[in-house]
């Protein structure tokens, strides 16, 4: 019961961060906690795993309850997200994270930033710039990525 309440709290918190995501899009920032380098490394491992098509790397850093919401609105569970890499239906170009900001709390962290996107998905090329929010959660086995949500930024001013 408590685990379910924690997950619900983290999801609500993640949605709230999307509201605040545009209010402070400065250069890389964090709360300055001692785990900053570890969390930045985890986030970079995610970007490398996605951009270099490494589903086994992603499998090891994603929480079993991982949810991925694409900039198109498509939502996938961990198994669905990884299967798209394994079966070749989705291929990303390398991902360069920008304006990364990490805020740590008791047992979880919120990561926000921006990245240029280029992906081949089911024969179609999708390009643009996405703003993202990622929720990291501390588990007994270490930090894992629980949630990712991207929002496609309009090319219009």
What attributes characterize this protein structure?
157 residues; Nuclear Transport Factor 2, Chain: A; 4 helices
Task: Describe the model.
The protein is α+β, with helices and mostly antiparallel strands and 157 residues long. The chain has a single domain (2-152), classed as Nuclear Transport Factor 2, Chain: A (Roll), CATH 3.10.450. Helices cover 32% and strands 41% of the residues. It has 4 helices and 8 strands, in the order αβααββαβββββ. The chain has helices spanning 2-20, 36-51, 55-61, 78-86, and strands at 29-30, 62-69, 75-77, 90-92, 98-104, 108-121, 124-139, 142-152. Strands 1, 2, 3, 4, 5, 6, 7 and 8 form an 8-stranded mixed beta sheet that branches. Residues 9-30 have low confidence and may be disordered.
Question: What is this entry, summarized?
Answer:
Helices cover 32% and strands 41% of the residues. By secondary structure, it is of the alpha+beta class. Helix 3 packs antiparallel against helix 4 (78-86).
Form type: globular
Tell me the domain tally.
1
Task: Give the strand content.
Answer: 35-45%
Class from helix and strand fractions: alpha+beta
Query: How are helices and strands ordered from N to C?
Result: HEHHEEHEEEEE
Radius of gyration: 15 Å
| Poorly predicted parts | 9-30
The CATH architecture assignment turns out to be Roll
Number of helices: 4
Number of DSSP-assigned strands: 8
The description of the largest β-sheet is: 8 strands, mixed
Helix content: 25-40%
CA(first)-CA(last) distance: 46 Å
CATH class term:
Alpha Beta
CATH topology, what is it called? Nuclear Transport Factor 2, Chain: A
| Mean pLDDT across all amino acids | 83
